[in-house]
Specification:
Layout: H1 2-25, E1 48-51, E2 56-58, H2 59-64, E3 68-72, H3 79-97, E4 101-106, H4 110-120, E5 125-128, H5 133-137, E6 141-143, H6 149-155, E7 164-166, E8 169-173, E9 179-184, H7 194-206
Parallel strand pairs: 3-4, 4-5
Antiparallel strand pairs: 1-2, 1-5, 3-8, 6-7, 8-9
Length: 208
């Protein structure tokens, strides 16, 4: 029995390892529909962002203190993203009461994050993944249409040199960095509603 479980565990571990290696090594998809995101049950990779103050934010260290709601959005220039961020602000107190913290990630430069925060009167943490390195590690980066290139280069402070965008996504992480819930939709017009996020957060908290 023990040998069987050990073999099965080894097979699962090898499959996950192979899938992760394949994700990291493959080219960035040309379309949002072709992304290969991290899955529920997987642990987040080593990743760092830039805060609005210009200081590095290590994701694993950030989530060690509290379960975390991580939002990947396209940028402060996107009206659908602004609507999502504003909706998240409305439920922030309820999310915090459940013991979570909120981290919103975009390719915008720290300077542009400040504009987004002021425009939407946000009080949770915004961080910059201007080079899209973290979005690639999460498997949600894709090649933006060429018409976006000049715009994305400017909004990222010149760091988004590959002309990439993230598929809008929501991840709920525990303090070990394990993914407990995710919502990823290639249609950027469709976002997880605040009500469904609250429900997912409650379930995640109950299953701790």
């Amino acid at each position: 029995m023990f040998k069987t479980l050990t073999k099965n565990t080894l097979v699962i571990a090898l499959v996950v390892l192979f899938a992760t290696a394949f994700r990291m090594g493959e080219p960035v998809p040309q379309k949002a529909e072709d992304v290969s995101p991290l899955l529920i049950g997987e642990t987040i990779p080593e990743a760092s962002f830039m805060g609005m103050n210009g200081k590095e934010v290590n994701l694993k260290k950030f989530v060690e203190s509290k379960p975390t709601v991580v939002i990947f959005y396209r940028g402060g220039w996107c009206p659908f993203c602004n609507r999502q961020l504003a909706g998240l602000q409305k439920i922030e107190k309820d999310i915090l009461k459940m013991g979570y913290q909120i981290l919103a990630v975009s390719p915008d430069s720290p300077e542009n994050l400040k504009k987004t925060m002021d425009k939407n009167t946000l009080s949770y943490t915004l961080v910059s993944d201007a080079s899209m390195a973290v979005a690639k590690k999460f498997g949600i980066a894709f090649q933006a249409p060429e018409r976006y290139r000049k715009f994305l280069t400017k909004s990222s402070g010149g760091k988004n040199t590959e002309n990439l965008l993230p598929v809008p996504a929501v991840f709920l992480l525990d303090t070990a960095g394990k993914i407990k819930f995710e919502y990823i939709n290639p249609n950027y017009r469709e976002r997880l509603s605040p009500e469904l996020l609250m429900a997912a957060a409650k379930v995640g908290k109950a299953s701790k």
